[in-house]
Amino acid sequence: MSFLYSFTMQKILTVLVVLLFAVLGFAAGSAYYIYKQWQRPSPLAEPVLVEIPKGYGAKQVGLLLQKNGVIESARSFQWWCRLNFGKASFKTGWYKIPTGQSISQIVELLSSGKTATIRVTIPEGRATWEVAGILANSQLKLDSAKLDSLMHNSVFADSLGVQAKDLEGYLLPDTYEFPYGTSERSAIRILVRANLKLRDELQAQNSPVWKELGNWHRILTMASVVEEETGLPQERYLVAGVFMNRFRIGMPLGADPTVRFIFRNLTGPIYKSQLASDNPYNTRKFAGLMPGPISNPGRLAIEAVLSPNKTEYLYFVAKDDGSREHFFGKTLVEHNNYKDIAAKNRGER
């Protein structure tokens, strides 16, 4: 009886040992598989954009990455995060994940907060409706109608710290890195904040022109005319000097771009009926500054207005010889003579 009992116990122990080794072998195999998953580069064939929603932990992020083909095993990802406590602190946003990344590199990226961006360049001298089109046609894929509506919403402008009927002139031209998922409101807010930051920087320089024109809105208004009249850096300060001279003696600025702004006629001929418009933006007819900017001037045009050249010139006209330069004159007679030369350059005389 004791022999039978002893044999039975030995058999049970043998089975238990076999089972234990089987479990240990399975665990070791699983651990090795998980370890290899940790070391293996991402199977991505090309970079992919992934959005990490707010509140996502290791489990949700792992499943999301597996679904997008970034990793092969969500479980391996989760185990890595558990065993590397403190290294996985996922930040909300869109991330562009490169190819060939290990799990540790992916976790580092998603915890860095360095979200993916879309680069958009806003050129100098574009009107609000043109800026709306640029943003809408970029990879941001924003709604141009909604952008245009917000840009002409005085309540929204006020919420951004702009005391004006619209945001014309306050969308600072520059190259921006917009986060993926940027909304229409956020995109506009970024442009306006850049403009107001520039305002604070330039105001600290105490230009006497600031006091002469009165405020930032009027500075932007004058700068928008300078921006539209010349794109040559070497002429900006001189053109600004001419317009400031006209402004000081109560002479109409006489800038055709202000008439174009009224009718959104950016190219082509300007008609006599348009030049006769009673719109307050018509500087061919009315002296002084317009009610507001006619475009969004860049930093260089604004700086030119704040530091214009001291000159006796009151007139200028495009040479029309391919140089993009202008003739500058002190008198109307001199100006008319230059107009004749420009006409010859165009082959009209």
Shape category: elongated
Number of domains: 3
Distance between the termini: 132 Å
Give the H and E element order.
HEHHEHEHHHEHHHHHHHEEH
Treating each run of at least 4 consecutive H or I residues as one helix, how many helices? 15
What would the average pLDDT be, to the nearest integer?
89
Biggest sheet: strand arrangement: 1-2
User: How would a crystallographer describe the biggest sheet?
Assistant: 2 strands, antiparallel
Amount of helix: 40-55%
- Rg, Cα atoms, Å: 33 Å
Q: Which runs of at least 5 residues are low in confidence (pLDDT < 50)?
A: 21-30
Explain what you see.
- This protein is mainly alpha-helical and 349 residues long.
- It folds into 3 domains: 37-115, Endolytic murein transglycosylase (Dna Ligase, domain 1); 117-203, no CATH class; 208-311, no CATH class.
- It has 15 helices and 6 strands.
- The strands form 3 sheets. Strands 1-2 form a two-stranded antiparallel ribbon.
- Helix 5 runs antiparallel to helix 6 (144-151) and helix 10 crosses helix 14.
- The longest helix has 38 residues, at 2-39.
- It is elongated and about 135 Å long.
